Amino acid sequence: PVTLSQTGFVHRDQLTYPFNERGLQFGDGIYEVIRIYEGKPYLLQEHMNRLFRSAAAIRLELPFSIQEITNQLTELLERNNMVSDGIIYMQATRGSAPRAHAFPGDVPANAYAYVQDLPRNIDKLSTGVTTMTERDTRWEHCYIKSLNLLPNVLAKQAAQENGHYEAIFEQNGRVTENSSSTIYLVKNHTIYTHPATNRILHGCIRMRVEAFAAEADIPFVQQAFVIDDIPDADEMFLSSTTSEIMPVVAVNGICIADSKPGTITRKLQYAYEQDAG
Ligand code: PDD
Question: Is the pTM higher than 0.90?
Answer without folding.
Answer: yes
